Amino acid sequence: MNAPHSTTASTDALIIGGGVAGLTLALQLADHCDVTLIKPAAGASRWAQGGIAAVLAPDDDFAAHINDTLAAGDGLCDPAAVRFTVENGPRAIDWLLECGVAFTPDSSPGARYPYHLTREGGHSARRIIHADDATGRAVVEALNGRIARHTGIRVLTDVRVTDLIQSRDGACQGAWGIDDAGRVQRIMAPHTVLATGGASGLYAHTTAPDPASGHGMMMAATLGARLSNLEFQQFHPTGLYDPDGPAFLISEAVRGEGGRLLNEAGERFMPAVDSRAELAPRDVVARAIDAEIQRGTSGHVWLDVGHLGADAVRRHFPTIVAHCRQRGIDVIRRPIPVVPAAHYSCGGVATDLAGATGVTGLYAVGETACTGLHGANRMASNSLLECLVFARSCARRIVSTPLPPPATMSDFSALNPKADVDLPALNRLRNTMRRAMSQDVSIVRSQAGLSRAAATLGEAQAELQKHSPALDHPASRRLWQALSLAQLTVHAAGQRRESRGLHFSTDWPEHASTATPSTLTLADLSAGQPRR
């Protein structure tokens, strides 16, 4: 049934999310069809510091980038997705340059490419194009500028999507949401694209101030989409350690330019762990840091850049230098305290090479999707590359797909922003979820810990439905989605009886004989669907 006090709008393509994937897709579609873009104030893309990996220098090649990505993915990448992404990378960068993204130039004698290329963990060559140490911000601002000037894109900044609309034949027909005035919004669309980000917000410590908690993934699962590789949550090795301050990422490019990790005694430890030292893949570095933290008493390790020279540090990392100075840290004079923090979801909604999910009319791009590119561990700076390549591919698929005839919607119990809900209780349950995930579903896992987390999450979800049985308030609906995804993540981790990439189990510390992606649906959630 229709929601009371709701408004209805329609569009050819509805894009939910305003990061690099969503913005790119909107611009690629806008010359061909009517586009509505729901763009929240926050998003992970803006916080991306390091850059975008692509084969740009004449002495680099596709095979090297492909092999580096496959190695970082620890046997679980889809080779076809890797090749597709890498081979389409240079054209995506050319398009960003046409959009006016101000990448850092390289005017040094003998420069291999007009723009400075840096190197990050897992890469065998310098292939990371960047805009100083604020690449995400530079790309988002350039794309937002073009969107603001395009008359074919309707931008909504005051709507929070809570559910997708499904027709009686199972197709996605748009989305439901709530605007800032508390009105229910129904937006009908034959093509709906989730660009809603990952699930780092399921954890207590993250690298972004306002991380997503996998709402898009669960909305897709509710319509029947498959979720894949949820157990592979990447923890960035170097989040700024400041228990009393906001989250902040110390870019991998700092290590790419020669930053050294030190333990409490001031000694380097990575050369004894891996021949690539600080440039080993993120899962290796994060586990090594975690081990040092467990052996020490400070709760962090140090990242030293003083030996690089003040001029080089200020030139390459102005954002990091300025932010740390505001937090009372002079990175030239003393090392930066760092700790691993939840950063990127390698798993998500399973898609093909055009972002299609298997649910008619529903697509997913960016971190909310699982394309097969990352496998068991994402290599540095492949994330924005994936956003660009798959958004452009998704646009081509949508443009070439004829618009279907209007479908009959299934019934839907109305959202009710005025429903009685105990918000402090919901916040307490969310914090319970984050503590459980950080304690037992983090860098190092065990079956005992996963069982403990499953019990805690199940109890939290049962309590949620006591506080808000109908789940009709947007806050309770979103918490149900987060708790459900957390439970599915625990389930996926429990099924993987090996250690691979980002999933390390003390019970099964070795690889299994075969590498198999995990796949789950809503039916794997023991709590079932919410009552509506």
Automatic annotation (TrEMBL):
<dbReference type="InterPro" id="IPR005288">
    <property type="entry name" value="NadB"/>
</dbReference>
<dbReference type="InterPro" id="IPR036188">
    <property type="entry name" value="FAD/NAD-bd_sf"/>
</dbReference>
<comment type="function">
    <text>Catalyzes the oxidation of L-aspartate to iminoaspartate.</text>
</comment>
<dbReference type="Pfam" id="PF02910">
    <property type="entry name" value="Succ_DH_flav_C"/>
</dbReference>
<feature type="domain" description="FAD-dependent oxidoreductase 2 FAD-binding">
    <location>
        <begin position="12"/>
        <end position="384"/>
    </location>
</feature>
<feature type="domain" description="Fumarate reductase/succinate dehydrogenase flavoprotein-like C-terminal">
    <location>
        <begin position="430"/>
        <end position="511"/>
    </location>
</feature>
<comment type="similarity">
    <text>Belongs to the FAD-dependent oxidoreductase 2 family. NadB subfamily.</text>
</comment>
<keyword id="KW-0662">Pyridine nucleotide biosynthesis</keyword>
<keyword id="KW-0285">Flavoprotein</keyword>
<keyword id="KW-0560">Oxidoreductase</keyword>
<dbReference type="InterPro" id="IPR027477">
    <property type="entry name" value="Succ_DH/fumarate_Rdtase_cat_sf"/>
</dbReference>
<protein>
    <recommendedName>
        <fullName>L-aspartate oxidase</fullName>
        <ecNumber>1.4.3.16</ecNumber>
    </recommendedName>
</protein>
<feature type="region of interest" description="Disordered">
    <location>
        <begin position="494"/>
        <end position="532"/>
    </location>
</feature>
<dbReference type="InterPro" id="IPR015939">
    <property type="entry name" value="Fum_Rdtase/Succ_DH_flav-like_C"/>
</dbReference>
<feature type="compositionally biased region" description="Low complexity">
    <location>
        <begin position="512"/>
        <end position="532"/>
    </location>
</feature>
<dbReference type="Pfam" id="PF00890">
    <property type="entry name" value="FAD_binding_2"/>
</dbReference>
<dbReference type="InterPro" id="IPR003953">
    <property type="entry name" value="FAD-dep_OxRdtase_2_FAD-bd"/>
</dbReference>
<keyword id="KW-0274">FAD</keyword>
<dbReference type="InterPro" id="IPR037099">
    <property type="entry name" value="Fum_R/Succ_DH_flav-like_C_sf"/>
</dbReference>
<comment type="pathway">
    <text>Cofactor biosynthesis; NAD(+) biosynthesis; iminoaspartate from L-aspartate (oxidase route): step 1/1.</text>
</comment>
